[in-house]
Amino acid sequence: MVTPVIRTVDLRSDTVTKPTESMRSAMANAEVDDDVLGNDPTAVLLEREVAEIAGKEAAMFVPSGTMGNLISVLVHCDERGSEVILGDDSHIHIYENGGVSSLGGVHPRTVKNEEDGTMEISSIEAAVRSPKGDLHYPVTKLICLENTQANCGGRCLPIEYIDKVGELAKKHGLKLHIDGARIFNASVALGVPVRRIVQAADSVSICLSKGIGAPVGSVIVGSKSFITKARWLRKTLGGGMRQIGVLCAAALVALRENVAKLEDDHKNAKILAEGLNRIERLKVNVAAVETNIIYVDLPKDPKFIAEDACKSLEVLGVLVIPQTTFRIRIVLHHQISDSDLDYVLSCFEKLFSSVPEEKA
Amino acid sequence: MVIRSVDLRSDTVTRPTDAMRKAMASAEVDDDILGYDPTARHLEEEMAKMTGKEAALFVPSGTMGNLICVMVHCEVRGSEKQLLETLKEARYPSTKLICLENTHANSGGRCLSAEYTDRVGEIAKRHGLKLHIDGARLFNASIALGVPVHRLVEAADSVSVCLSKGLGAPVGTVIVGSHTFIEKAKTLRKTLGGGMRQIGVLCAAALVALQETLPKLQFDHKKAKLLAEGLNQMKGIRINVAAVETNMIFMDMEDGSKLTAEKLRKSLTECGILVLPGNSSRIRMVIYHHITSDVHYTLSCLQQAGQAIHEPKMLSF
Q1: Are A241 and B60 in contact (CB < 8 Å)?
Q2: Do A63 and B29 touch (CB under 8 A)?
Q3: What letter does residue A326 receive in the DSSP assignment?
Q4: CB nearest to A63's CB, from B196, B198, B200
Q5: What are the structural domain ranges in chain B?
Q6: Backbone angles phi, psi at B20, to 5 degrees
Q7: Which of B29, B61, B65 is closest, CB to CB, to A239?
Q8: Structural domain containing residue A69
Q9: What does A36-92 look like in DSSP terms, one character per residue?
Q10: Residues of B in contact with A99 (CB under 8 A)
């Protein structure tokens, strides 16, 4: 039997994207200055650009999406005893170390995330604390949405839904924050400009280092007064960095060159999803693959535990993540070629065409 | 008249050199959260070695470096970070940590000796406390004292060292400590939002800084001394020249002098020399490797300004 050439195809996340040649060139030539003592000019350019894209007054570069969300929640939830309504499967709640609570003192009130990434409007409304000032209750300050919703499979929240949540927030005097780590994916998939998607939001956190491939960073957007408070918090948390123009230059290239490529990532995700779904033992909800994330369900059998499957795939050079006991997560990005896709499919076929113990 | 811009506000204004830019452009990188960035790892290993500690961690800023260190050491609710003066009082809640700062910025970039740091370390041990050193400008202290960094921080459980100040890297600080300390620090860094992805870009510049700018710090100290001596000779200005141990100068106005800090700040601005704004009667100047003949320019500007204030020219007809 001919041993296939081992190559590495990293599908663990779109965060693995490495800076392109044009990004590296931009970083090397970036105009910079001390962004804490004053303003780094390239950061200012980036922040203006992203504010414009999002249709908000102002923007601010931050080292990560985690900090973007943390700052946003803390600015909105500005009194002791604040509560934030968010999805039980949201990134803020699951993957940010509970920072909003441990650092910010904000109490989370979770609402079930449906399969499509939304939360039932009626459930959100039921979670709003009322009456305010009741002796027993924290004060609801904020609703957080996530678009695309990662744990639900990179699902896009429709604009109409976001608008409705926005109306609900206004009705109850609450703010609305969108964790838009992959907002560009949502925008491309829905065919709707970012600014329209986030129209109802008071703030948005947008990642530059995921699908659009910049090496580092996120940008948060909101009103001028929101961003002023955010700047203070960023310094307090230790996110105030000096000559960040280096990183912002790469991000500007990413915005210019890589947003359009996201459509290819979605196409590739669909192709791969369909191919995987054709493998007998595997199941993929292809219709749910709206952007660049695929969930592959394995047979619920101890012989097919996701963790073991991922290790076997790693031996073949395919890096993916075990999402749950019998589910594997795959994330597409622009540095995955067509031949990588074929290779990945062939590896899955090789691995799942027989039961593991039969191979021995 | 061509106004030249001389920025003496801080050594944080240092911009990446050509060598740093080249290194950033060609840096080997990877996702430092999902796995590790190879250039970050290289920098962290280098810093751990230089400071004589087990492990190190790159963080976005000195503020985060100190914050993480204090939080890791004081991880029990109700912990208290103790300033040295009040150490001997029995306290409730429980004292967990002593923090020193070397060089000490607000005292004018003063160096803490290894012996002093060791004594504080002994006190810390005696009381079951940890010792953290805010070593933002630790390399300045090391150069000025002629003592290797690892000796200076021998007594410390953790240190925070800036790369973006006198060393001139664009961004970042490295914290050092034991393996277990750094493991906890890593989690806290993520929680605070300091976990960044392909940071090799920034770490590459920092590695160049350690190679190329570190040896130049001694010249920053010489320039600071020169400027301090020159300014101290001016009427109305008082500088404790002996206290200028590293790259910072505090300039005070003599009582009763016609020279005021406000007038001097104005003159400085007119000459294109930037200092931090403020109402204080004290003006701070910080020297770093980009400042060269600017020292003479600064001196002559201030001398001229001083002269103009003391002896305003009479109009002659």
Answers
A1: yes
A2: no
A3: T
A4: B196
A5: 6-11+216-310, 18-213
A6: -65, -45
A7: B61
A8: 21-257
A9: TTS--HHHHHHHHHHHHHHT-SEEEEES-HHHHHHHHHHHHS-STTEEEEEETT-HH
A10: 191-193
Could B34 and A15 be called an inter-chain contact, meaning their C-beta atoms sit closer than 8 Å?
A: yes
How many percent of chain A have pLDDT more than 90?
93
Task: Indicate which CATH number applies to the domain containing A177.
Answer: 3.40.640.10
- CB within 8 Å of chain B, chain A residues 42-81: 62-71
| CATH number of the domain residue A295 falls in | 3.90.1150.10
Alpha helices in chain B (DSSP H): 18-25, 38-51, 62-73, 114-126, 138-145, 149-152, 179-192, 200-208, 217-232, 261-270, 294-310
Preceding omega of A131 cis (within 30 degrees of 0): yes
User: Which of A10, A42, A216, A218 has the most B C-beta neighbours within 10 Å, making it the best mutation to test the interface with B?
Assistant: A216
Which of B34, B68, B200 has the CB atom closest to A16's CB atom? B34
| Distance in Å, alpha carbon of B36 to nearest chain A alpha carbon | 11
A70 to chain B, closest Cα gap in Å: 8
Query: Burial code of B260-281, b = ≥16 C-beta within 10 A, e = fewer?
Result: ebebbbebbeebbbbbeeeeee
Neighboring chain B residues of A237 at a CB cutoff of 8 Å: 63-64, 67, 192-194
CA A239 to chain CA centroid, nearest Å: 19
Count interface pairs A-B at CB distance under 8 A: 154
Enter the pTM of the model.
0.91
Contact (Cβ atoms closer than 8 angstroms) between residue A156 and residue A178: no
Same domain, A226 and A278: no
- Residue carrying structure tokens 């920098």: B43
CB spacing of B26 vs A246 below 8 angstroms? no
Chain B closest-CA separation from residue A118 CA (Å):
25
Whether residue A236 lies within 8 A of chain B, CB to CB, comes out as yes
CATH of domain B6-11+216-310: 3.90.1150.10
> Does A28 contact B22 at a Cβ distance shorter than 8 Å?
yes
Q: How wide is the angle at C-alpha B312 spanned by C-alphas B306 and B313, nearest 5°? A: 125
Question: Among residues A110, A119, A111, A108, which one has the least CA distance to residue A83?
Answer: A108
Q: Is there a contact between A215 and B198 if contact means CB atoms under 8 Å apart?
A: yes
Region B18-213: CATH code? 3.40.640.10
Q: Which residue(s) pair with B286 in the sheet?
A: B248
Helix axes of A338-352 and A262-277: crossing angle, nearest 10 degrees: 20
Q: Name residue, tokens 């970070």.
A: B81
Interface-testing mutation among A12, A34, A207, with chain B (most B C-beta atoms within 10 A): A34
A241 with A279, same domain: the answer is: no
Domain boundary among A257, A277, A295: A257
Q: Which of A66, A123, A77 is nearest to A99 (CA)?
A: A66
Q: Determine the length of chain A.
A: 360
A12, A32, A98 member nearest B170 (Cβ): A32
Whose CA is closest to B304, among B263, B275, B274? B263
**Is A16 domain-assigned?**
no
| pLDDT grade for B255, boundaries at 50, 70 and 90 | confident
Q: Which residues pair with B101 in a beta bridge?
A: B134
Q: List pLDDT tens digits, range B93-137.
A: 688 999 999 999 999 999 999 999 999 999 999 999 999 999 999
ipTM: 0.88
pLDDT, one tens digit per residue, over A106-154 is 999 999 999 999 999 999 999 999 877 788 899 999 999 999 999 999 9
The verdict on a CB contact (< 8 Å) between B171 and A236 is no
Q: Is the same domain home to A283 and A224?
A: no
Distance CA A231, CA A75 (A): 10
**A288, A317 contact by CB (below 8 A):** no
